[in-house]
Amino acid sequence: MAKGILHYEVGEQVDIHLLVKSSTKGIASNGKAFLTLFLQDQSGEIEAKLWDVNQGDETIYGAQNIVKIFGDIHHYRGRNQLKIRNIRPANKEEEVNISDFLETAPLDKEEMNDKITQYIFEMKNPNIQRITRHLLKKHGAEFMEYPAATRNHHEFVSGLAYHVVSMLDLAKAIASLYPSLDTDLLYSGVILHDLGKVIELSGPISTTYTVEGNLIGHISIMVNEIAKAAEHLHIEGEEVVILQHLVLSHHGKAEWGSPKPPMIKEAEILHYIDNLDAKMNMLDRALERVKPGEFSERIFALENRNFYKPLFLK
Amino acid sequence: MAKGILHYEVGEQVDIHLLVKSSTKGIASNGKAFLTLFLQDQSGEIEAKLWDVNQGDETIYGAQNIVKIFGDIHHYRGRNQLKIRNIRPANKEEEVNISDFLETAPLDKEEMNDKITQYIFEMKNPNIQRITRHLLKKHGAEFMEYPAATRNHHEFVSGLAYHVVSMLDLAKAIASLYPSLDTDLLYSGVILHDLGKVIELSGPISTTYTVEGNLIGHISIMVNEIAKAAEHLHIEGEEVVILQHLVLSHHGKAEWGSPKPPMIKEAEILHYIDNLDAKMNMLDRALERVKPGEFSERIFALENRNFYKPLFLK
Amino acid sequence: MAKGILHYEVGEQVDIHLLVKSSTKGIASNGKAFLTLFLQDQSGEIEAKLWDVNQGDETIYGAQNIVKIFGDIHHYRGRNQLKIRNIRPANKEEEVNISDFLETAPLDKEEMNDKITQYIFEMKNPNIQRITRHLLKKHGAEFMEYPAATRNHHEFVSGLAYHVVSMLDLAKAIASLYPSLDTDLLYSGVILHDLGKVIELSGPISTTYTVEGNLIGHISIMVNEIAKAAEHLHIEGEEVVILQHLVLSHHGKAEWGSPKPPMIKEAEILHYIDNLDAKMNMLDRALERVKPGEFSERIFALENRNFYKPLFLK
Amino acid sequence: MAKGILHYEVGEQVDIHLLVKSSTKGIASNGKAFLTLFLQDQSGEIEAKLWDVNQGDETIYGAQNIVKIFGDIHHYRGRNQLKIRNIRPANKEEEVNISDFLETAPLDKEEMNDKITQYIFEMKNPNIQRITRHLLKKHGAEFMEYPAATRNHHEFVSGLAYHVVSMLDLAKAIASLYPSLDTDLLYSGVILHDLGKVIELSGPISTTYTVEGNLIGHISIMVNEIAKAAEHLHIEGEEVVILQHLVLSHHGKAEWGSPKPPMIKEAEILHYIDNLDAKMNMLDRALERVKPGEFSERIFALENRNFYKPLFLK
Amino acid sequence: MAKGILHYEVGEQVDIHLLVKSSTKGIASNGKAFLTLFLQDQSGEIEAKLWDVNQGDETIYGAQNIVKIFGDIHHYRGRNQLKIRNIRPANKEEEVNISDFLETAPLDKEEMNDKITQYIFEMKNPNIQRITRHLLKKHGAEFMEYPAATRNHHEFVSGLAYHVVSMLDLAKAIASLYPSLDTDLLYSGVILHDLGKVIELSGPISTTYTVEGNLIGHISIMVNEIAKAAEHLHIEGEEVVILQHLVLSHHGKAEWGSPKPPMIKEAEILHYIDNLDAKMNMLDRALERVKPGEFSERIFALENRNFYKPLFLK
Amino acid sequence: MAKGILHYEVGEQVDIHLLVKSSTKGIASNGKAFLTLFLQDQSGEIEAKLWDVNQGDETIYGAQNIVKIFGDIHHYRGRNQLKIRNIRPANKEEEVNISDFLETAPLDKEEMNDKITQYIFEMKNPNIQRITRHLLKKHGAEFMEYPAATRNHHEFVSGLAYHVVSMLDLAKAIASLYPSLDTDLLYSGVILHDLGKVIELSGPISTTYTVEGNLIGHISIMVNEIAKAAEHLHIEGEEVVILQHLVLSHHGKAEWGSPKPPMIKEAEILHYIDNLDAKMNMLDRALERVKPGEFSERIFALENRNFYKPLFLK
């Protein structure tokens, strides 16, 4: 398989297919139009400028088109840029598909689905189990495709499901060390906590926020869904309120979007598990691109810190 | 009618019936039990100590009993206290009822109900009108009885309905000056914004928070109720999301319990109307007890400020 | 009348007179000078670049000149820009006046003056009335011309007076619902609260801050003016302190520039009325440019939120 | 002279005259009235309880009376208390005066007055000199008597003048090391910065805030005074604005009560000099009562820190 | 073994030995001295008042004495209190030891020591291993005895070692799920992070802060110790700086006492592991005392939240 | 000597040698490379663009080369820029040295060294004196060369020593007015407080942070150095802890990088002296470039304020 765009060094020549992730028109100081392109493959994305474009170019090189590019890598303001020497649309015979250019979770869907099904199977409280199973079934197709966010962490195809699977394993490991934790609540909380994102976000490609996502948010969306599921399944009892609370409070603080802070033990731990998995994902991805003895780029969602890779770590 | 307990001056003698609002046992330094009573009538409440009590006294002078007290008013740490010289339970022949001792909204229920019905009648958007009417009908009985809060503002019988009626009049006055405001959204937002309190709070007397109130809160409770109402009435369309947003955002900021800030114009104004009416209620009640040239007590919900009543205002 | 510059669509041709609001020289990457122009008419303002200018151009196309432009509208970084194809100074015969290009309050000065005079006439406390009338007379000419701010809200000719008139009507409506409010204090507070802006700001066109505005600020300037007015009118008594307090505290909190928070009831409400009118002005102006189903630009003075215009509102 | 009340050890007997600083009535658990007295002499103040008092006692032992007390020192909740065994009003023959019991600045008034006069004499800018001299003359009598605050620092008779004299010496020392500082502005800023306290506070004994102090504050009061002084002396020019700015900004930040932060160099340094002298005063007074190897009480105005006196400092 | 003092119900009679944890003298309103005692056994502590004490009693019932008490349990201001009917010092024949009354970690020292030794044995980097082993040996005796804090979490004998052992197991479980984590750094960071507490705190009983603890703090103390250990062992290289950074940053933010935030991946995760284990300890201890359907007391170190124990959890 | 680059007016011609401080490559909109140069002499630095460069140019005009430039001064976005008309490397015969272009402290090293030696000589406590002398000797060479920071204040050759000398003089002046201050602690605190910067920073030219500087910081570095010095000199006793505390706390608050706030009097004053000297340095340098009646640029480290130079100050 071709080398990913992120693995080219400054000065290297590039001659590969890439997917146009976004394309924005600007006017240069000479009065002519140009396009700022973000081009991606599975390794990540890179910026490029296309100068002196006409109206046709705007369409041909718009978002979600695949292009063939010849050029080389420059360094500009602390980031790599791709200098385009030649560009053309991919043609039919080249047999390239959008999915070949999208970053995807490292586990495949069946495997993830099996793991989650197994965790649901292990639940002992029938109310919690039925609500969880019902909601996962209702939104399962999108759940398996969506990213966990538009940026920051798990922002790739199936990122939502992958985040949930990692959190389930983490929940199991922690609960085995602290046996006072209720695994039904932890597992159900993990599975449902971000499920509202399938309504908050537009989908797995060029992800944006929906109107409902902007005005209500994935937390309140899922709290509503739990209420409706309970009504539909004729489930009454404190489990409904507790599951709603787990989802409601998983951001940890009002300032971070949770109208109530965690007030049951498993809600507090769920918040921690969510954070820990998201941070590991961000740290691994940032440090992957860094050599020992160097600092990473600043990571916005980690208070804009940059992280150092020690020399003695291989 | 008898003079209210709050209108007695320091040094005056008291010989009236009062309702025990709360009764807490303590142990004095001489080892004997005593009760700290909060006694109320419609004018407000006052603290009193009952010394040297036995187990029977704890029952007889427990919360929600009516008592006859002879005593006088002292000043202690900046507040009036009632020094009990004689106390006994009210007897049957005295024909006193709990409701005679509870502070109640200055408008009666029929009048408030008529006003609210009229505002709903004026709505033009049928989706908004039907959801509002459905939810008010579903929770109408409690809505007419409940206070708007456990303390700070409108913390009296029917305080919730009274707060809503005042806000509706204010909404109408403001909308007539700023005609770009949509009155359907404003009126519906006003009526629904705090309606979740009938589930969040325990009831009109000795009000506390329910488990659901603590873990979910009145905002999310009502957002759920709107979702269920829309499903039940087969209403789809943006009105549902917008009404949910109005309720969700009415505290104005994440730190104040709204997971989303106001993002439509009427939501922003609803937040203002809610605040303005709550503040007027707090200010009027605090300044009522103050003479020109004096400062009020510090008002916790107004950043602990104390307010001055100018000398030249009668 | 000609179509306002803000009402042209992207791609449309433009051939109109505009006023140069500001003109800033830069050096392009080819080493030649260019001007960044902000051009305005009563509908608003638009940015344009004028390339390859010489020293004479800097003068001819400097601020407060009127120009005739032929060009078209582009979209650049989320905002419209005017691409200049031809530009020349307006000539005498075209009979264009600066005032034709300035955005102005929707009420004319006489009407606003009459309304304010009427409100002063309704005051019952002679001290309050005389101080208010004296200061309005002293600064009346500028008061009728100045904007209420350099940006954010009411930033147009006579914006200050228009803001005051709207607030007076709002004060009257609110006071009629909450009769414990003293209208003398409210009306005087409204009229005086921002009057110091006639010293803080440079004037109605290309408004900037004066040295006194920067170092002292309109709040303290007006508190001084009230002190001097009282001395001049031989008025003593608490009214002077209270009026100073109303002005001093109208920003509500120390962090927002008020050295004392509101500590009388009318000061608290004045702060609310000021905010409500400013926000309505900002919201109306932002949403005017937006179609149903869209979000407005982010509004800096509203915590950088963007606002949604629901689909079902016409 | 008698040993000061603060210098008695726990367990020691006391038999001295003290001034009643404040006297507050309470009701004990046995139903009888008692007084909480704060008693002072020049060394400081101590709390005492007087049990079983009658109405006459309230008058005899009210604030600003001198009493003769026999008792002993106890330790209670981290502070010393005076246990009263015998108390009586001082009698005529004992020839005790209130001023003998008040803490006073360590310099006498003439000395302080001479120093300040000398600093004014050294000013070179006539506008600054005349305004400073005029305002000091106008408020000089109170200035020489008032404390600098009700608590925290320089809260003793003539504390205001003493604080100013210390700051003037500090200003001179700093200006000699940083010759770009303008001494006229520094000296005038020092003299005027807190002069508004003679209107903000009630006087040198049992100091409280006046209504004007509460609603306007000493900063705005003095800014007004400078405006009136300039008008009276027919002084125009930037000196007036700059002096107002020095006073206005001397608390350093909006949150600390300055509507504008320092925006001229001498204003920034004035803020520092004010802080440094206030902190030295607080630290010296707190550490005076502490032995090497101990921590002081927590000092509220120093972020509630407690300070350690190293063992190796004598 | 006798029932622990925390397991008595309100109204029950008590006739047991207890250890005096602290004893503070006060003066009652009748002028007589009393003692406020905190009495403890391994189940926890309870408050009691001892009235009318003489000087001998202060010594006999001072801290770290064992007493025999007959009395009963009362409820006072939301907490249980022990009402003393009879109290006497324990006598020799009763064979009671202080250690029988102290709460201790649930694992014994040998077991904890073995586990930690095993983790050190597993380290692969010799520099990290040697520094860790050296410092643990140097401070091992205190490390095995000290609590992890004076209050909030693991505030019992050997709490520090127990906290470390739990964190090591957690670190191992997490590292097995995220294999990019370096276990040498994690294990060493866990073992050293709080080791400075053996200098910061006074010891395992009646724990207070030392002067060095107050002025320098356990974080900087241990950073110094690492520097000295490296010098002593002649170790140079980045491992020294990285270990210092792990300790330095483990509070996560400047506001929480870390002069640098975590800037290597294992430092970030160490902070999380520390928090997670501390919170589990606090939550388990708070919820142990609560029945299903109830809320716990407010937990200060968890932002003063109280936690709910769901009804459906046994 | 030649006129400094900062003293040229807009429009003036320039024909001088300058040192390249930094050189960053960019790609212009025409696809050609250009360099953004920061050029400096002792008066300060100026930006310039060098268009159409080839690979050789990048080396010739890289950082730390001296160049001869002919060009003129433009004004661009509120700052001066140097427009290059001709540029060439300096040649051997021109006898220019890097040190001629670096801003340097206004005192020479010998003079500064003598002053500091004298202050150490005046110390009376032998432990404090020996530790101070030892550490200054150990790091003396770098101490005399390093800047005090990479930007904001004293960011020039020998800036660290110059900052220390100014602070020593200030400490002496303040201690003479407040004789309770211990000059040994003050002088030692001043000398040691920033000495860790010789390890935190890379050196006097093109200063950056070292890895140890980033991960540990100059405060903790110097605390370690004091610990090691004490061990080496066999000094025990509270002086060691107190000196560590002085360094540790000199940033004043946790948020500003001090893990402990000042808790001894001299630590509090050291923090003040440090601030005062840094601010005077920033203010003098910012106002130097401003004419009376103008505002300075915004100063980032002074909360982004801009400062006004009054008209009446020459």
Automatic annotation (TrEMBL), chains A, B, C, D, E, F:
EC code? 3.1.-.-
**Pfam families recorded:** HD
Keyword Hydrolase among UniProt keywords: yes
Keyword annotations for this protein, in alphabetical order, are: Exonuclease, Hydrolase, Nuclease
Question: What is the enzyme's class at the highest EC level?
Answer: hydrolase
Q: Which PROSITE patterns match?
A: HD (PS51831)
Name all HD domain ranges.
Answer: 163-279
Describe the function of this protein.
Answer: Shows a 3'-5' exoribonuclease activity.
Q: Which family does it belong to?
A: Belongs to the YhaM family.
Q: What is this protein called in UniProt?
A: 3'-5' exoribonuclease YhaM
Q: Which organism is it from?
A: Metabacillus herbersteinensis
Source organism lineage? Bacteria, Bacillati, Bacillota, Bacilli, Bacillales
Protein encoded by which gene: yhaM
